Amino acid sequence: DDRQVVKYSLPDKPDSWPSSYFVPFETEFQDKLNALEVCNNSLLVFSGFYGYRMDDLPRYTDGEDLLSARGRAKEPFSTGHGCLSPRGTAVFNVFGSGELCLFVCRDGIHITDGFKADYASNAIDWENTVDIPSLDRATLKNNPKRHRVEFRYFDKTDTTKVKRLDFYYHPKLLMRQSEGVVAFPQLPVLGP
User: Fold this and answer.
1) What is the pLDDT of residues 57-82, one digit of tens each?
2) C-alpha–C-alpha distance, residues 166 and 150, integer Å
3) Which positions ≥6 away from 160 have C-beta within 8 Å?
4) What is the DSSP string of the chain?
5) For residues 84 and 123, which has the higher predicted lDDT (pLDDT)?
6) pLDDT given for residue 95 in this prediction
7) In this structure, what are the phi and psi dihedrals at residue 23, rounded to the nearest 5 degrees?
8) What residues contact 114, with CB distance under 8 A and at least 6 apart?
9) Could you count the other beta carbons within 10 Å of the beta carbon of residue 41?
């Protein structure tokens, strides 16, 4: 199925799509790929239940078997928590900390750097705020001028209304972590 495969071309031949240049993503749930995003010079590949990082695309000139190279080309960073919406990812940059990516999952907004993932929406009563069956139409959009990622979703109580929550990432607004805890920044959330 084409929705479980990432096909690619080479940088010097963007109009050429060799049939052997693909990486399959066959998961235990056989879920479709929903979103692609570039974060920290890696391609993040999302299905409904998984998140993968691709650092390099296999090619014939690598000098190894293309089939085995496909298997090594992907590394999972999230198992059981993927992205449900094709427009449900947003990359942003906290000054001096590199890029981070938010993504819409069935149990909340998650945050990743492509190596590990965590919840970004702990402060939200997810089940009573968001209409979960319509999350495939939810969007995340980075608004760098205002240092926030805007999450648009359908309201749980009135599914004809679109509402917005804002995740702020300006360094002065970020909540501090406990000492000794290495984690993602806690983004303040304002909304409806």
Assistant:
1) 887 776 667 777 787 789 999 999 99
2) 5
3) 154
4) -GGGEEE--BTTBTT---TT-EEE---TT-PPEEEEEEETTEEEEEESSEEEEE-----GGGSS-HHHHHHHTEEEEEES-----TT-EEEEE-TTS-EEEEEEETTEEEEE-SS-EEES-TTS-HHHHB-GGGGGG-EEEEEGGGTEEEEEEEBSS-TT-EEEEEEE--TTTPBPPPTT-----B--EE--
5) 84
6) 82
7) -130, 120
8) 39, 40, 42, 44, 53, 77, 101
9) 9
DSSP assignment of 161-184 equals -EEEEEEE--TTTPBPPPTT----
Tokens of 129: 């705020």
Write out the two tokens for 182: 């290495």
The single-letter code of the amino acid at 183 is A
- Percent of the chain's residues with pLDDT above 90: 61
Gap between the Cα atoms of 167 and 144, Å rounded = 11
Q: How far is the C-alpha of 149 from the C-alpha of 128, rounded, in Å?
A: 21
The tokens describing 81, both together, are: 């928590």
Instruction: Count Cβ atoms within 10 A of the Cβ of residue 96 and give its class: 0-12 exposed, 13-18 middle, 19 or more buried.
Output: exposed
Q: What angle do CA 115, 14, 10 make, to 5 degrees?
A: 50
Which residue type occupies 111? I
Identify residue 90 by its one-letter amino acid code.
A
